[in-house]
């Protein structure tokens, strides 16, 4: 019997939850049968070793889960230094089908106070000098990115957040536009006001190119954002300081961990009931016969199942 390609629907039927931790979230609660896995990828070195294990659930059998702190152990990587391609490729190597990004963000709107939870539905890209695609070197593909987050997965994240936030005083914002800036410095006042005029709700530094790469890798992706401060537009507030951000961030981390556990309870066991995106259907432009052998090998986990079918 021919073994299915590891990126094919037949090989990716089990739902595997990935969590990439942002500022403050450096570990994952309740994991059992834990293993630390260091990987090599064709795109470089991930931020660190992945934590792989199982989340026990009252709603069904344990859920396989994979965790990675995107800034590395000890928070040693700037947002612009993270090898996003290596991180996403590593998640796919480990079978992840649905990836939750936990992100600390600044608020661009008065109604999103520090401590509030936001599940964004849109992105504005203000990053620079970051490689945002697996493709190139003789292979061209153009994915659809009009809705940058997976709708079904985002809905379950929102419901899990509502269950947890409803137990406390913190508000949940069920949608919003997230501006992603390069950093590491925070915005100028003029930039902050510009983003507000564009309709930005929160601002962060890491959801891009992460979201684009997850889509290319056909991994369902959603962001769980927690507000740590008002960006510098808010004249009645002091300018954001690292100490103030860390204080709010530490309070947010416990909430995020609870939301992840609630999400795990709500996720189905298989991808039949919550499919990952088939984003590369019709996206590959290059004639497969023209793709260089070295590029074909490098991209095997991304497009190999489509090339096999071709």
From TrEMBL:
Q: Name one GO biological process term.
A: purine ribonucleoside salvage
Q: Name one GO molecular function term.
A: S-methyl-5-thioadenosine phosphorylase activity
Kindly state one GO CC term assigned in the UniProt record.
cytosol
Give me the residues that bind substrate, please.
Answer: 205, 229-231
Query: Per the UniProt record, which EC number(s) apply here?
Result: 2.4.2.28
Keyword Transferase on this protein?
A: yes
Q: Does the keyword Glycosyltransferase apply?
A: yes
**Part of which pathway?**
Amino-acid biosynthesis; L-methionine biosynthesis via salvage pathway; S-methyl-5-thio-alpha-D-ribose 1-phosphate from S-methyl-5'-thioadenosine (phosphorylase route): step 1/1
Q: Keywords on this record?
A: Glycosyltransferase, Purine salvage, Transferase
Top-rank taxon of the source lineage equals Bacteria
For binding phosphate, which residues are annotated in this chain's numbering? 23, 70-71, 103-104, 206
Q: Which CDD domains match?
A: MTAP_SsMTAPII_like_MTIP
Q: How does it assemble?
A: Homohexamer. Dimer of a homotrimer.
Q: Which family does it belong to?
A: Belongs to the PNP/MTAP phosphorylase family. MTAP subfamily.
> NCBIfam families annotated for this entry?
MTAP
Q: What is this protein called?
A: S-methyl-5'-thioadenosine phosphorylase
- Organism of origin is Enhygromyxa salina
Gene name in the database record: mtnP
């Amino acid at each position: 019997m021919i073994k299915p390609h590891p990126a094919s629907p037949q090989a990716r039927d089990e739902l595997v939850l990935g969590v990439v931790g942002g500022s403050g979230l450096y570990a994952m609660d309740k994991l059992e049968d834990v293993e630390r896995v260091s990987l090599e990828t064709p795109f470089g070195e991930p931020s660190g070793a992945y934590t792989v294990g199982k989340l026990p659930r009252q709603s069904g059998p344990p859920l396989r889960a994979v965790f990675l702190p995107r800034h590395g152990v000890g928070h040693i990587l700037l947002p612009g230094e993270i090898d996003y391609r290596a991180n996403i490729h590593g998640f796919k190597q480990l079978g992840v089908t649905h990836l939750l990004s936990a992100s600390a963000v600044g608020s661009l709107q008065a109604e999103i106070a520090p401590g509030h939870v936001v599940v964004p539905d849109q992105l504005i890209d203000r990053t620079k000098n970051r490689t945002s695609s697996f493709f190139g070197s003789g292979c061209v593909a153009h994915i659809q990115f009009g809705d940058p987050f997976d709708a079904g997965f985002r809905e379950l994240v929102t419901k899990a957040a509502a269950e947890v936030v409803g137990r406390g005083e913190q508000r949940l914002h069920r949608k919003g536009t997230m501006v992603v800036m390069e950093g590491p410095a925070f915005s100028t006042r003029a930039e902050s006001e510009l983003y507000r005029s564009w309709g930005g709700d929160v601002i962060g530094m890491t959801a891009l190119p992460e979201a684009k790469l997850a889509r290319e890798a056909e991994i369902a992706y959603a962001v769980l954002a927690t507000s740590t401060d008002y960006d510098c537009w808010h004249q009645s507030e002091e300018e954001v300081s690292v100490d103030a951000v860390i204080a709010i961030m530490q309070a947010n981390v416990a909430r995020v961990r609870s939301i992840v556990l609630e999400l795990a309870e709500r996720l189905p066991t298989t991808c039949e009931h919550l499919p990952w995106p088939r984003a590369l259907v019709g996206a590959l432009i290059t004639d497969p016969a023209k793709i260089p052998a070295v590029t074909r090998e490098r991209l095997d986990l991304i497009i190999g199942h489509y090339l096999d079918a071709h």
